[in-house]
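Can you give me the bound-state structure? Components:
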Amino acid sequence: MLDIKVIRSNPDAVKQAMRNRNMNADQMLDEILEIDQQRRKITGETEAKKAEQNANTKQIPLLKKAGEDTTALMEQLKNLSDEIKVLDSALSELEKKQMNILLSLPNIPSPTTPVGKDDSENVEVRRWGEPKQFDFEIKAHWDIGKDLHILDSETAAKVTGARFHFYRNLGAKLERAVINYYLNTHSANGYEEILPPFIVNRSSMMGTGQLPKFEEDAFRLATKVSEEDYFLIPTAEVPVTNMYRNEILDGAKLPIKHCAYSACFRAEAGSAGRDTRGLIRQHQFNKVELVKFVDPETSYDELEQLTNDAERVLQALGLPHRVINLVTGDIGFSSAKTYDIEVWMPSYGRYVEISSCSNFEDFQARRAGIRFKNHPRDKAQFVHTLNGSGVAVGRTVAAILENYQNTDGSVTVPEVLRPYLGVDVIR
RNA sequence: GGAGAAAUACUCAAGUGGUGAAGAGGCUCCCCUGCUAAGGGAGUAGGUCGGGUGACCGGCGCGAGGGUUCAAAUCCCUCUUUCUCCGCCA
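Here's the bound-state model for the whole set.
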């Protein structure tokens, strides 16, 4: 959520920032400024009346004690009370309108996010590794998985539907090995391991910015467990970031770093027909997420480190990849700056996104009320939140199957995974 | 799923409609002290919103949201969470 004060003091810069996101928000921003002005005017009037009410109300017990008649004063205060009610409801109407607009505005891109209209203009930052040359006809991972009887989409189609998979045998073990390898690596590297709930309430989905704008992308539970709506998480970012919702953290504890495995559930609305085969785009997939809460001063350094931490596991797996800096037209709703890590996928003949590392600055923190103080008497200020996939597990398995495939249809297991899997080759 | 109890600040906790939400511990500062402990003094309802260049002024804050009332921590309604017991359950 943007700070209304920023919009108020610099509306033209905000308008330009939205245009850089391919969004013309001029009208919306003019409207919110209008609402803001009115809201503050009515706030002043209401508060003056309330101050009058408080002062007079205090007189009543004193007058009564003195044996005086308070009927006239009470009559007068009844009228005042009615006026306050009218103003209060007008005020809450304006606040609601203002909040709705604020919640639907995306974050302002960082100055270090290149201006550009779509993914074709994203800037490559670096590459690691060389795409492997194969001297035989390569197979896509869905064929490798099917032939080795480790991936089964057909049974999943019967049991559930499209865009789901059964992993079997060494496929299931490989997925589990990757999860364990990622968690062990990151937790040894200073990230506290979290296993979060896979279901969250509406407030949490609001806190990280999935709602209210992108409800169609989420799975909402049909069964009512409580009065609040429950959602399947689209990423562990949601429960882990919201762990600290409406809290004031001790500045000495920053940066707080978490790694978390979760299954992720996405409706993939609007992606019909894209990546329909294989593990690339599923309604349910596994991911290890990295989440950080940091002092605003350090958040861009922390983003670099976060990206490095995500890359490190791909390097250990020997998977060629590159890092790209997303342009203003391609970054996500809540993000100020995003690096995508893309892994080389031989069957696609190109790099495919496997991680997305973002600095949200105070956008999520303001929505979710996550603040910190360095000293007890300081004014609480918003933390910066960051997160990145560390990394997507299903896509990792796809990349391993393709990059490590052999001419006989078998797949060599990357060295670091062998202790987890117990075999060198899947055949 | 059923029955009961509870939710007040960093912690414990008083407060059954009325002027500033008690008190204690803790914490911060000061005094005393060779140092520590003990002792003495002062401060400590966070936070947030609005106004003001500012010292300040005002509004809202007693789990959340509504309601009654001139006035709500206190009365009423809905919800959430926690605890105890019963039932069910991996």
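A couple of observations. Residues 39-40, 43-44, 46-48, 50-51, 53-54, 56-62, 64, 70, 73-78, 80-81, 226-228, 248, 371, 376-377, 379-380 of chain A lie near RNA strand B (CB under 10 Å from a C1'). Chain A has a mean pLDDT of 92.
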